[in-house]
Amino acid sequence: xxxxxxxxxxxxxxxxxxxxxxxxxxxxxxxxxxxxxxxxxxxxxxxxxxxxxxxxxxxxxxxxxxxxxxxxxxxxxxxxxxxxxxxx
Length: 88
What we know:
By secondary structure, the chain is mainly alpha-helical. It has one domain (3-79). 64% of the residues lie in helices and 0% in strands. The protein has helices at residues 3-7, 13-26, 32-44, 49-62, 70-79.
């Protein structure tokens, strides 16, 4: 499978877990409940693997505080013209 095809697939639970773990390591003061709700919202919005990676990287690169909001992840797609098309 080509890399572009793979990253345009709906983010699997494994991919979501990988990115949530990255965020949890960098923002350990966020509660587990926060990450559970974030996971729900990621699934609801149908993030692709590449959209999720880009949104998480954006938060990591730009967050100036010891925490971030769920909107920081969800809003990134809309503000940056990310496409929400899924190619399964």
